[in-house]
Amino acid sequence: MFLLTNFEKGHVNNVTYVRYAETARVYFTRNFALHIDPSHKTEWMNLVSNRGLGIILRSIKVDYKFPMQYPDKVTVYHKLVHDPSSSQSTQFAFHLQVMILSEAKQRPAARCHEDLVTYDYKLGKKAAIPPFLMKQLAETWKLQEQAKKHWQQRILDIEARVRKLETESWDRADAVEDTGSAKK
């Protein structure tokens, strides 16, 4: 009754945010299968099933930013937290950072940290990240880092242009501030 009552009032239950992250993670994985690495399509699709080798959620931490109201639509973004070849990663696990954006409010509704483990369902225990997955995680990390450098440079360029504009207008010796006074 609790879920129904909250739904009727328009409140999106906290468990729903975890489902948003999970659903997006499945699509994230399927995207690799269908568009990025189709030569390993079967292996990618198996990662989100309970057949053979899969990816399971060891833990998730959710930081709620504001209470979303139904109806709302969300956009969910995933990114790797660490370089998969770094000492912060292990041969069994990797971490994803998740941002859940509210379309109605145009801002983050929640941020999540997912700790994922590769798991062998046949053996019933964790397993090493397979080479096809490790290769794509490494490539994704490389692309993330390239994008981060590109956008950091763009920010620096914008800040330099703003500073130039300020220097040419406000920071002149003869600059006069117009406070919007009605008296002229």
From TrEMBL:
- Please provide an example of a Pfam family that matches this protein in its UniProt record: 4HBT_2
State the InterPro entries in the record.
4-hydroxybenzoyl-CoA_TE, HotDog_dom_sf
Q: Which domain of life is it from?
A: Eukaryota
CDD domains on file:
4HBT (cd00586)
Question: Could you tell me one molecular function GO term of this UniProt entry?
Answer: fatty acyl-CoA hydrolase activity
What name does the UniProt record give this protein? Thioesterase/thiol ester dehydrase-isomerase
